[in-house]
Amino acid sequence: MSQNDLFEQLDLGLLNSDNAPILDVEVEVIASIKYWERRTGLGRERFLDRINLCLRDTDKAVTKNQLNKWLSPSQENTVPAWVMPAICWALQTVEPLETLLKPIGFKTAGVASEILRQKAQADIQAKKYYQESKQLDNAISQMLKGRG
Predict the structure, then answer these.
(1) Considering the domain 13-104 in this protein, what is its CATH number?
(2) Which pLDDT tens digit goes with each residue over 18-77?
(3) DSSP codes, 2-32
(4) From the CA atom positions of the chain, what is the Rg in Å?
(5) Which pTM value belongs to this model?
(6) pLDDT tens-digit series, residues 139-148
(7) How many angstroms separate the Cα of 23 from the Cα of each of 9, 16, 26, 37, 104?
(8) Which of 56, 83, 55, 50 is nearest to 69 (CA)?
(9) Calpha distance 101→125 (Å, rounded)
(10) Exposed/middle/buried for 103, CB within 10 Å: 0-12, 13-18, 19+?
(11) How far is 24 from 31, CA to CA, in rounded Å?
(12) What is the C-alpha to C-alpha distance for residues 143 and 146, in angstroms, rounded to an integer?
């Protein structure tokens, strides 16, 4: 089996499963955000400022009260999807998104990962073309031997 065949056999894992994954990750997402907030040393005010800086060109802003409610596991409120990219930017990590994606078996990928993926696919394609070229060379050699 070639590498190309392996690539073609890769599927979307849990997205194609008949069994729905358990997606109760609210507490884990909150824990991830709080962990990274502590780790960055920003403090709640500076964290909030960075979130709102990221949202400056939208019609949305986050208040301290909203953020506190979202990050309180005892509240019924959850962190809205529209603010997650701003939170990740503010914290300089995609870990909260990783936490969201984990139940469906995915991870975030940055530009470098995408370039590496494209390079791997190009290498596989180049190898395939090289093998086809060798087969054509062999066929030409056989034809020329038949003439002589």
Answers:
(1) 1.10.260
(2) 888 777 888 899 999 999 999 999 999 999 999 999 999 999 999 999 999 999 988 777
(3) -HHHHHHH---GGGG-SSPPP---HHHHHHH
(4) 25
(5) 0.67
(6) 898 888 877 6
(7) 26, 15, 8, 23, 8
(8) 83
(9) 30
(10) middle
(11) 13
(12) 5
Question: Which tokens in the block code for residue 84?
Answer: 């997650």
Residue 54 and residue 85 in contact, taking contact as beta carbons nearer than 8 Å: yes
The string of DSSP letters for 54-113 reads: HTTTSS----HHHHHHHT-TTSS----GGGHHHHHHHHT--HHHHHHHGGGT-----HHH
Q: Where are the domains of the chain?
A: 13-104, 110-147
11 DSSP 8-state letter = -
CB atoms within 10 A of CB 3: 13
Q: Which two tokens stand for residue 83?
A: 């603010």
Q: Which residues of 17-50 are buried (b: 16+ CB within 10 A; e: fewer)?
A: eeeeeeeebbeebbebbeebbeeeebeeeebbeb
